[in-house]
Specification:
CATH architecture: 3-Layer(aba) Sandwich
Order of helices and strands: HEHHEHEHHEHEEE
CATH class: Alpha Beta
Helix content: 25-40%
Largest sheet: 7 strands, mixed
CATH superfamily: Phosphoglycerate mutase-like
Shape: globular
Structural class: alpha/beta
Number of strands: 7
Strand order of the largest sheet: 3-2-4-1-6-7-5
Distance between the termini: 24 Å
Number of domains: 1
Strand content: 5-15%
Length: 268
């Protein structure tokens, strides 16, 4: 696997048939939060800090891969944040799903064709500046003492939105052009919240009525949000018919794997 900091472009579609191709003609995007890290467990802010998965994080991301395999969900393409906690999550998911990954250049392993993984800084969490690696309680105390808010530190939310604006139109158009049925998009909790706001408020996506209100919350580790975009959509306005069909889903997590999710503002 190699890293790219430029705007990602779609890798070639893999051979074989994905679950989405078999069931309906849509681009189905699984927006996945990375697995748990020690920082998550201890209530420490991460942002751009390059933390790794802990044992819990490895277990739950492998469980997600096994769930996808059981459900017959196989990606045609994979995008991931370039930070280690997302890289490791991606590798575990693909291993569990029975799909090894190749480099982002489009070269595949021998044997069955596997999806390429594009790693990008565009999918990184919001930087928290000097608050990174601080316990959330201490960070809140510092922020309050300075008469500021958490949003005043590090990367502005608008900058994360600009990163989304830079990648999303090309990401969707490439997927539609190549007929990619299923895509994994592995990123961070704060990023997913900002992305969801963009998809609903700016891009025009709707939320399925079947999603319970209590499910609209900070994404749990390895939870996935599903966005469906019809392949015959209006290419000038693809979001108009896009639907978020699931949000923060964790059907792969048993009580053994579940942990209490700390509802941080972002930076996860």
């Amino acid at each position: 696997m190699t890293q790219t900091n430029s705007l990602p472009t779609s890798p070639s579609k893999t051979e074989g048939k994905s679950a989405a191709e078999d069931s309906s003609k849509v681009v189905r995007i699984y927006i996945i939060r990375h697995g748990q890290t020690d920082f998550n467990q201890r209530g420490i802010l991460q942002g751009h800090y390059n933390s790794q998965l802990n044992a819990q994080g490895h277990a739950e991301s492998k469980a997600l891969g096994a769930y996808f395999k059981q459900e017959g969900i196989r990606p045609d393409a994979v995008w991931s944040s370039d930070l280690d906690r997302c890289r490791e999550t991606t590798a575990n998911i693909l291993d569990g799903a029975g799909s090894s990954s190749s480099s982002s250049t489009g070269n595949t392993d021998e044997g069955d064709a596997h999806p390429s993984v594009v790693f990008s800084r565009h999918l990184r969490e919001r930087s928290l500046g000097e608050l990174e690696t601080m316990p959330i309680v201490a960070a809140k105390q510092r922020v309050a003492a300075a008469g500021k808010t958490m949003s005043d530190y590090g990367e502005p939310h608008s900058a994360v939105a600009e990163r989304i604006h830079a990648i999303w139109p090309s990401f969707i158009n490439n997927a539609l052009d190549q007929g990619l049925g299923t895509i994994f998009f592995v990123t961070h909790g704060g990023y997913i919240k900002i992305l969801a706001k963009y998809l609903i408020n700016e891009w025009g996506a709707t939320v399925a009525e079947t999603i319970p209100l209590e499910q609209i919350r900070h994404p749990a580790n390895t939870s996935f949000t599903v966005l469906e975009v019809p392949m015959d959509c209006d290419r000038a306005n693809p979001g108009k018919r896009a639907v978020i069909t699931d949000f923060c889903a964790t059907p792969h997590l048993t009580e053994k794997h579940k942990v209490k999710q700390i509802n941080f503002a972002d930076g996860q």
